[in-house]
Amino acid sequence: MNSTPETTKQLTYLAAALKAPRVLEAATRLATQARDNNWGYEEYLAAVLEREVSARDTSGAQIRVRSAGFPSRKTLDDFDYDAQPAIRNQIAGLTSGAWLAEARNIVLLGPPGTGKTHLAIGLGIQACRQGHRVLFATAVDWVTRLTDAHRAGRLPTELTKLARYPLIIIDEVGYLPFEQDAANLFFQLVSSRYEHASLILTSNLPFSGWGQVFGDQTVAAAMIDRIVHHADVLTLKGASYRLRNHDINQLPSIKAQKVAD
User: Fold this and answer.
1) In terms of domains, do 32 and 82 share one?
2) Residue 258: predicted pLDDT
3) What is the domain extent for residue 52?
4) What's the whole-number mean pLDDT along residues 14-20?
5) DSSP tag of 238
6) Closest to 170 (Cα-Cα) out of 158, 153, 149, 187
7) Do 151 and 250 fall within a single domain?
8) Does the pTM exceed 0.90?
9) How far apart, in Å, do the first and last CA atoms of the chain sit?
10) 125 and 54, same structural domain?
């Protein structure tokens, strides 16, 4: 039996009351298919609700991605693993998102231009699609945010707010050194998330160089200890993607990498 005007009106009201307008669309679209294939009531209801859940998941993921503050949209599928074959299996092992449930961290180390930020964004977008809230910013921007909160007398509140995010991404650790106060604020951010929520950090420096960035070997050592205690550390090598067709032999990062190799 086709829907009567009264039934359609009732469905419209119920969908609006449930704040699920897509239920009405799915119910209308699937009705003919259900009748033609002799679906039971339960099958029809399950199909309608499945469409609504799928649409909500997609919509929610899009909102989380937009809210994360990613500088661009880069996915794990877009990454050139041929240039970094050593990390292919490591990344594959992270796509399930189990590391987030365990409050583990990910550290991406390597010269500029080797794909660290791309991977950080890709993992962040993957987390958004899996239902997690994410925030992305450079190390300098995170310190600026914490400094502003500290000066306003609301640093504890800000750290509590950030702790509600299962994942925050800190890009470009090491590109600029921090003053002592900034280093201490950064340490508080790391400490507040230790064994409670995850971090992704990218850095152009090995851990041995972080003491210079934070101006204090003790602070750097304590920070690294908390970061890597539950972490996957991925090391990227080679020349910058952005300079593939240029003479890069004189780049300091490349020369240093060749010496390290």
Assistant:
1) no
2) 44
3) 5-66
4) 82
5) S
6) 187
7) yes
8) no
9) 74
10) no
